[in-house]
Amino acid sequence: MTTYKNQLLPNEKVFRDPVHNYIHVQHQVILDLIDSKEFQRLRRIKQLGTSSFTFHGAEHSRFSHSLGVYEITRRICDLFQRNYSIDKIGLGGWDDQERLITLCAALLHDVGHGPYSHTFEHIFQTNHEALTVQIICSPNTEIYQILNKVAVGFPEKVASVIQKTYPNQQVIQMISSQIDADRMDYLLRDAYFTGTEYGTFDLTRILRVIRPYDGGIAFGMNGMHAVEDYIVGRYQMYMQVYFHPTSRGMEVILEHLLQRARECYQNNPEIFLRNSPLLVPFLEGNFTIDDYLRLDDGVLNTYFILWQDEADVLLNDLAYRFLNRKPLKSCRFEENNQTALLQHMQHLVETVGYNPNYYTAVHSSFDLPYDFYRPESNKHRTQIELQEKDGSLVELSKVSQLVKALAGEGQGDHRFYFPKEMVDLSLQDNYDLFGETYKHFASHIHNGALIN
Amino acid sequence: MTTYKNQLLPNEKVFRDPVHNYIHVQHQVILDLIDSKEFQRLRRIKQLGTSSFTFHGAEHSRFSHSLGVYEITRRICDLFQRNYSIDKIGLGGWDDQERLITLCAALLHDVGHGPYSHTFEHIFQTNHEALTVQIICSPNTEIYQILNKVAVGFPEKVASVIQKTYPNQQVIQMISSQIDADRMDYLLRDAYFTGTEYGTFDLTRILRVIRPYDGGIAFGMNGMHAVEDYIVGRYQMYMQVYFHPTSRGMEVILEHLLQRARECYQNNPEIFLRNSPLLVPFLEGNFTIDDYLRLDDGVLNTYFILWQDEADVLLNDLAYRFLNRKPLKSCRFEENNQTALLQHMQHLVETVGYNPNYYTAVHSSFDLPYDFYRPESNKHRTQIELQEKDGSLVELSKVSQLVKALAGEGQGDHRFYFPKEMVDLSLQDNYDLFGETYKHFASHIHNGALIN
Amino acid sequence: MTTYKNQLLPNEKVFRDPVHNYIHVQHQVILDLIDSKEFQRLRRIKQLGTSSFTFHGAEHSRFSHSLGVYEITRRICDLFQRNYSIDKIGLGGWDDQERLITLCAALLHDVGHGPYSHTFEHIFQTNHEALTVQIICSPNTEIYQILNKVAVGFPEKVASVIQKTYPNQQVIQMISSQIDADRMDYLLRDAYFTGTEYGTFDLTRILRVIRPYDGGIAFGMNGMHAVEDYIVGRYQMYMQVYFHPTSRGMEVILEHLLQRARECYQNNPEIFLRNSPLLVPFLEGNFTIDDYLRLDDGVLNTYFILWQDEADVLLNDLAYRFLNRKPLKSCRFEENNQTALLQHMQHLVETVGYNPNYYTAVHSSFDLPYDFYRPESNKHRTQIELQEKDGSLVELSKVSQLVKALAGEGQGDHRFYFPKEMVDLSLQDNYDLFGETYKHFASHIHNGALIN
Amino acid sequence: MTTYKNQLLPNEKVFRDPVHNYIHVQHQVILDLIDSKEFQRLRRIKQLGTSSFTFHGAEHSRFSHSLGVYEITRRICDLFQRNYSIDKIGLGGWDDQERLITLCAALLHDVGHGPYSHTFEHIFQTNHEALTVQIICSPNTEIYQILNKVAVGFPEKVASVIQKTYPNQQVIQMISSQIDADRMDYLLRDAYFTGTEYGTFDLTRILRVIRPYDGGIAFGMNGMHAVEDYIVGRYQMYMQVYFHPTSRGMEVILEHLLQRARECYQNNPEIFLRNSPLLVPFLEGNFTIDDYLRLDDGVLNTYFILWQDEADVLLNDLAYRFLNRKPLKSCRFEENNQTALLQHMQHLVETVGYNPNYYTAVHSSFDLPYDFYRPESNKHRTQIELQEKDGSLVELSKVSQLVKALAGEGQGDHRFYFPKEMVDLSLQDNYDLFGETYKHFASHIHNGALIN
């Protein structure tokens, strides 16, 4: 008898996808998970948050990214089973019994994301990884019920892949390592929807050289340049898309807006009880999974629309700025040497009438494009291994000068944010009063950087 | 002195766009319009409404489409000015004094769209074209104020282009005709974001052959096949994307949901006053421009999330179905011959426990891919003219067999919608009671069509 | 023991291909065929002959097209084996024992092509289909020897697929029907290398709906629009690329050049014995397979370079015009009504000093984009069948208005070719003598067509 | 009166191009140059020589590359004229009087290339740069005559741009520097036709940030990452396409074949006088421009076809191997440490019956992806300059860690080439005699490298 676990759809179901052409679904379990309400909710959460304010095409959802991660994982499983199955190559080979758990983990790895995740988490102390695990393991979610039909304990196993405690390293690394299905999908997808070409790398070629070994996932040495190109593509996407100063300028606005809402709630909860009920549990700091699953980008935006009419000037101005894309401007600064100057600049902003707590910020964005294993580090990374013809492994940065140049060093910048009005003459209504202040402020910014 | 009308940006500003690579903004007026709150609101309204339930990539907004229409129009103006300016070719040539009004009309032509436009308009008797004109001409919108700075009366002129009463036919046809910047952008954009290839046609080639003449816009005869290809691309997009049965199955749900909300409001307005305040003016049938401009997709979805907890079974079930993508199923039927059978089918649906007013529907989607001028028709269309070397004009379907095959005939189908449960055994909990009814129902559907 | 027939490569070998990304070779037999000298020769023969004079990117070879046809066929075999194997669906299913013969026939179907095939065949009465069969079946070709190692009689079986006498219709139609791997590859490949977008259709979607049935190959009804789009793409490629007037103007030059060479050879064979030895057997009308296999585009061009120095004015002028791209100009004409006028026009060409046999031509290019079965026709075509859910078949033009518009009617035009000098003032050195003749000539051409 | 220099075509003429969509020709001079026989000859010379043996799509010609370089240059001139004309920004701005000379130099910069340039030059001591200058400056070429019609001395001026002695550095650097129109076109074009994605970089973005300054060409600082991406793309193309071991294995065959022909000619010139007349001047070491202009890839290949029938075993075997793609195999080695071992390996090859002078080779390929100015170097390179907002310049590797990692260091490898038979058991007919030699040979190759 066909168990639910093995139940294949009579006809494969496909989803048309601009990045992978088709997403192929073959298992009833996977289709049921996609149809669950917790997963459908991801349609209403943008993959890139405030980046769409800079790249207007980037309105794609976490739903489409999750399908993409699933699809890349499925293709890797197919390749592994065809070329490197444990039956064929023995120890270090792929055990296709792991397929379903791998696919489920790939599909669900982001299911705990909420609206504007990064900022929301920061203000409300939520954690999307912990929430992913909770959604998978809470008996009253549809996802739990589907997974539990596969086998008792199966939800927890899927969660353990995401938590990286599952015993099979191949399964874990396929979904979470420095070159995994998650990163491969988001680089390609974000490049497609932003309309940039930086993030494109040769997925077909990567898939030709990926292979299992007893310690996890490796890449054939003949694919070194393809892997190298992926690392460089990743670096370029961070530099040019993810860390774009304008998107971060919107993120700062959002952060200050949510922070202000929390402050207002403490003084005057009625407003929010009346017009932002779904946010109240978070303003209270006491929420359930069910509360969390009701949030999405549209809910927050709806509340921001309503807050524009509230009496609190900061709340309504920040809401207006967020909804209508009025980002803060910025300049680079050096982390250690310019602390005093930053305070001075904030002071100048205050002088012309802005509360610097809400209208200035320092914002640092750094990414480590690649790192090899460092025993002394407390955040271990699985290094990328290349496999020679004789089976021996070589760590990537040993053979790639390009990767070596990027390895181990955070790439990014520190920026100081302030109101556009500070440097845009046409917006300075009070120039006759504060002309000197404005000039002084501007004199400290040169070639886009803060100067002493 | 540079007037606002002629004020060019010191450096052209660009928006990265996946379809046109870059959107180039050169006028201060255009940048100000883009930054207006009425225009920014289009970021929160999906271009394709329920199509994203079928094509998950199609999450692009009316904001990006509007920029795209602007950009194509801008490129046409550049071409016209370079090759066919009135100074150069005289009568029938392009007068570049028309550029700014044309660009403004292109950018703003869809600014009156609201959330899920088609359905919303149907239920609440709004009209996005009339609203576009109102937004442009209402003295307290930011858009009006920007346009009025150009010249007194300028907002009304821009509106008249959209209303097709502006005297210069070239300006009108560039934005609204059977092959205009609007259609060209949406076909390419929707093809890109859905990930289909049907709608692609050769924009560069069309732009090489487009030209002004004294009656409007024509295309060089050597571009006949490019124009033909555009018509076929359009036909394919309608058949395969816009008329997709699943998207329409979701549209039916949405329509019934909003209709149910209106009914509930009449009996019990308190619910909506409490949890759907922004929708109340529409439920009341009495709304202002300002009310309208507060709506977007997220606002409606937020209310649907809340309605899932309301007592009315129809309201909460339909809201659940919409949010979690549970479309009605469908089959084709013939318009005139199957009326009795349709009633019978609805009756069978009712038998097993569904209210047919909410869980069945007939839905017809037809498009006229192309039509030539018909004096007898009351909805005139500007036919597509091809221009011979000697300047004479030939109507497109006279020289293209393909277009002739599509001209004048609506393409599409009539479908009958019903709950998936009617034909999916695994969902029929009450099969022991109604087994015969289900079988009877299924026996009337063959090869996807209703049969007697 | 592994026989040669079943011998798989230890590691699949791939060829990077711009159209299909990778060509995957799994059988030793296929790799050996690709490495044979008769197949390698296809690298030196352009796929599109004189089209590269119009579309300079179209320099791709028959080698790359042949690999592409092989690859599409391989993918279809994989799909058939996975979803419709005879073991699974019984009668009408795919028998994977046919795979190798199908792949060999796909790879070799064009191996008999020579340089500038169409023109060469016309002048020297060769036939590339007959030559394909001969190359496969001649015991001293490398190809024969490879195929004969598979099994005695195997070369003849492969040839019978190309000759359409092989018993299994699925095998034949995969390679030769109105929608086969051959056409699918050349449309996509020629579109890619010319840089046009007309020929693109959605191969992935076609491959999703293609299926075997007991009479050959059919397509699922849900893929109707994809098949329709392929027919339209094909029509567009013929109209815009294959029938381009300039390419045909070069073809006319080539044809007259080869014809002149044959005439010269009859009077004065020594020239050719000395400087064009590889062409002599064809000028003699008596050649072997081995002679044929020594020809390629470069050989003919080399001889044309040498002929530029020969005394015969026609031979050297035509060679110069061909090598240096001096096409004849042309205008459309109507087949039946303009015979007398054509003679008159030729007479005018003669008047100003050109031999009309070499410097004028009529050239007709017509294609039947699609046809259904016509018992009365002596050139039967396998019609395209769509398969309903219940297994019944419907002929394509019955359900597609677009295809119906193209079915059964040749598309193309008749053109009259003449020297550019006839209509280009700047080239008319003898205008004072023949000014009236030139004016008279020009007066009969209007909007690109011959007029009375 | 319109002079030839200023004569614009009544209608711009376009060439469809897969890489740049359209090549736009506006000047009569440019059209005439394209139509010249010396330029048309470039159609018959492959851009990438033996690379098409590895990447079968790479059959594109130097003709298409030359058009591409012209087109990029034309676009840069347009941008410079629109945004940075000398009239507008003064000193350091672009003088549009330089347009025609720049376009001519761009179009003609490769006109001196012959068949299989690199190898041919090496064997016959020709030099394509010197020949380019000669073709431009020789009074009896069509190109000279066209240029001289522009103005007396104009051909020499165009040549001086190519020789880098022209006074305007902007003109020179547009065509020849580390990031010029030449490199930009070939990277994109070669990536397109090989079907790889490595070489793609964002041309539109580079064109947005390129600008003139008084010392030549610079790039806006905000385009740093686009320039960086170009450098990395270039590096990847060299590593993966231009230096591909198989293409180099074919190049070695070609080099030995031409070398053998020269040796044979010295002993027995009659053969070549009879069957390779166009090559004789080069075998003699005494050729004219006219001799050179008669050569192309097809001419050489035609001679190779004939040489297959000659008595000299080396000549005919090497010709067979080249025509039928039988490359030598190879392994990496270390330049300084393995000289003795290389000799030993050659000896082993000789032992089993191959003349090591013709069947082995060492081949080193290195490229310097980028270098900054080094006063001590005798081959100066124009470093890439980025321009800050205040106009100051910063050298690229100062701000890009990636470029710094590649700067100043040659990237590539040394390879030892030998007959495939040495390591392929299935080809070793004399294994019983030389089994130990073969094993010994193979034992010195491990993971693709020579080991002691």
Note the main attributes of this structure:
three-stranded antiparallel β-sheet; four-stranded mixed β-sheet; 52% helix; 452 residues; 11 strands; alpha+beta; Growth Hormone, Chain: A; homotetramer; Hypothetical protein af1432; globular; 2 domains
Number of strands of chain A: 11
Q: Point out poorly predicted stretches of chain A.
A: none
Helix content of chain A: 40-55%
Question: What is the class of the largest domain in chain A in the CATH system?
Answer: Mainly Alpha
Strand order of the largest sheet of chain A: 3-4-7-8
- What's the N-to-C terminus distance of chain A? 76 Å
Pair with the most extensive interface?
A: A-B, 44 and 43 residues
CATH topology of the largest domain in chain A: Hypothetical protein af1432
Q: What percent strand of chain A?
A: 5-15%
CATH superfamily of the largest domain in chain A: Hypothetical protein af1432
Number of domains of chain A: 2
Tell me, rounded to a whole number, the average pLDDT of chain A: 95
Question: How would you sum up the major sheet of chain A?
Answer: 4 strands, mixed
Shape of chain A from CA axes?
globular
**Helix-strand category of chain A:** alpha+beta
